[in-house]
Amino acid sequence: MTILALETSCDETSVAVVRDGKILSNVVASQVELHAEYGGVVPELAAREHLKNLLPVAQSALREAGISVAQLDALAATQGPGLPNALLVGLKAAQAAAFALNKPFIGIHHHEAHLYSPWISGETRAADFSNFQPNVSLIVSGGHTLLVLVKSELNHRVLGGTIDDAAGECFDKTGKLMGLPYPAGPLIDRLAEQGNPKAFEFPRPLLHDANDDFSFSGLKTSVRYFIRDHPALLADREKVCDLCASVQAAIVEVLVKKTIRAAKREGVRCVTASGGVTCNRALRLELERACARNGFALRLAEKSLCTDNAAMIGILAERKLLARAPLPSLDEEIKPGWALV
Questions:
Q1: Model confidence over 176-204: pLDDT tens digits?
Q2: Helix 184-192 to helix 281-294 angle, to the nearest 10 degrees?
Q3: At 37, which CATH number?
Q4: Do 251 and 143 belong to one domain?
Q5: Are residues 75 and 207 in the same domain?
Q6: Rounded to 5 degrees, what angle do the CA atoms 203, 162, 108 make?
C-alpha cells in the first residue's frame, strides 16, 4: 500500500510518501523565517505560503520516494485541528487528487497522528505496531498540551488538556518577554543548558490538582512581572540563562509529574510522548528518569517526527485503511476545532 500524505495545519508545508509502514520520503518546507518578523504565525501568510510551496514539495516527495502518481493507492491529509485557511490548502488538494485518480481519501486528526508517532521506527525502518501496548501519552506542542489514555491501537480517551496557554506557547511567549527571537522554545532549550534551574522560583500551575488538565498562563504572567521588577537581568547573559533554565524547569516538572501520575492511576506500564515540545532536551531527559524510577517503558517520538510532518499523517492513514475504518466523503470540510475524543 502506497500513500501520499499532506500536512498543512499551521506553518509547515509537508508531503510524505509511505508504503507498508515505511517512510519513503518526508519533505517539509518551513515558514519559520517568514513569521519570525511578526513574532508568531500569521494565518493568512501561512495559507499563501502553503499555496506556493505545496506543488514543488509534493513533486520533491514523489521524486525522493521514486514513486509516480499512478502508483499511489490512497491519499491522506490533515483535516483538523489547525488554522482554517492553512488546512484548506492541503485538504482540498488531497481530495482533488483522490477524485482525479479515483483513489481512497483519508482525513486525519493532527493530534491523533502525533499520538501514534512514537511507534514509528524512523525513516529507514517500517513502523512497528507489533509490540504496541496500552499507554498514557503526552502530546505537547505550541498550541496544545494533552494527556491521552490509549487502551489499544485506534482506541483512546483524552484524560485532560490545555485550559489556556499550551506548554509550547508558554515557551515562546516567555521567550518573547526576554527579547528572544521567534520561535523562542528551541533557544530557551539551548540557553537553559548553561543556566541554573533553581536560580529563580516560578509557579507550577495545576501541579497538585487532581485533574489531568494543564494551564501555563499563570507561569507566563509570573515571568512577565519578574522581568518587570528585574529589568537589568536581561543585560546579563548568565542571568538570562538562569531565567531560561528556571522557566523550563517549571514547565517540564508539570508535564512530567502529571504524566507519571496519570500512568500510575490508569494502571498502564508504558508512557509515550510526542509533539514539537518533545524535542526539548530537558523534557526528554526528565521523562526518561521518571519512567526509569517508576518502572515504565518509555517511547519518545523521534525528533524529526515531533514537529508537524506528513509522515505521521500517512502512517496513521495506512493503519486506518488496514483496520477498515470508515472513509470520509470527498466533500467533507476542514475541522479547525476538531477535538480528540
A1: 999 999 999 999 999 999 999 999 999 99
A2: 60
A3: 3.30.420.40
A4: yes
A5: no
A6: 150
- Cell 506557547 maps to which residue? 169
The DSSP-derived string for 245-284 is HHHHHHHHHHHHHHHHHHHHHHT-SEEEEESGGGG-HHHH
Contact 275, 139 (CB under 8 A): yes
Q: Could you tell me if 180 and 230 lie in one domain?
A: yes
pLDDT of residue 108: 97
C-alpha cell at 74: 490512497
- The 3-state DSSP composition of the chain as helix, strand, coil percent (nearest 5) reads 45, 20, 35
User: What pLDDT digit, counting tens, does each position of 283-330 carry?
Assistant: 999 999 999 999 999 999 999 999 999 999 999 999 999 999 998 889
- Angstrom distance (rounded) from CA 155 to CA 13: 28
235 vs 114: CA distance, rounded Å: 39
Q: Please state the domain count of the chain.
A: 2
Res 80 pLDDT > 60: yes
Reported as half-sphere exposure (CB side, CA atoms, 13 A), residue 270 has a value of 14
pTM of the model: 0.94
Whether residue 216 is contained in a domain is answered as: yes
Dihedral sign, Cα of residue 64, residue 70, residue 73, residue 78: positive
Distance CA 70, CA 300 (A): 35
Amino acid at 119: W
Length, in residues, of the chain: 341
Residue 146 shares a structural domain with residue 265: yes
Contact present, 182 and 40 (Cβ < 8 Å): yes
CA distance 90 to 83: 11
Cell readout for 330 is 470527498
Q: DSSP string covering 56-68, please?
A: HHHHHHHHHHT--
Whose cell is 498502564? That residue is 268
Q: CA–CA separation, 34 vs 219, rounded Å?
A: 28
- Domain enclosing residue 243, as ranges: 135-301
| Assigned domain for 332 exists | no
